[in-house]
Amino acid sequence: MHELSLCQNAVEIIEQQARQNGAKRVTGVWLEVGALACVEESALRFGFDIACRETLAQGCTLHILHKPAQAWCWNCSQTVEIERHDECPLCHCPTLHIERSDGVQIKSIEVE
Known about the structure:
- Belongs to the HypA/HybF family.
- This protein is α+β, with helices and mostly antiparallel strands.
- The protein contains 2 helices and 6 strands, in the order H-E-H-E-E-E-E-E.
- The chain has helices at 2-20, 41-52, and strands spanning 26-34, 61-67, 69-73, 79-82, 96-100, 104-111.
- The strands form 2 sheets. Strands 2-1-6 form a 3-stranded mixed sheet, covered by helices on one side.
- Helix 1 (2-20) packs across helix 2 (41-52).
């Protein structure tokens, strides 16, 4: 379950940023998950809850933002947004080149 290691890394960064800014507690975190990041949302939520234990982020609200991936279609020569790596939404051709899928990123942290 790579979601747990992603969460542990994210919580380390979140806690570091919170401490640097004098926060007493993290109340909310917004994570952006790319469509092709191969991350299961329920596993991400579970792993995040575990990783937050005994940190400034314990009990905070996790907000997950989904971001489509960008791909180049070799058939219609267009940059398109996709949710799965299957076919172009414009011409339905399967010849896509993934340009950006963005993985998992911390977008925002809310603190007290």
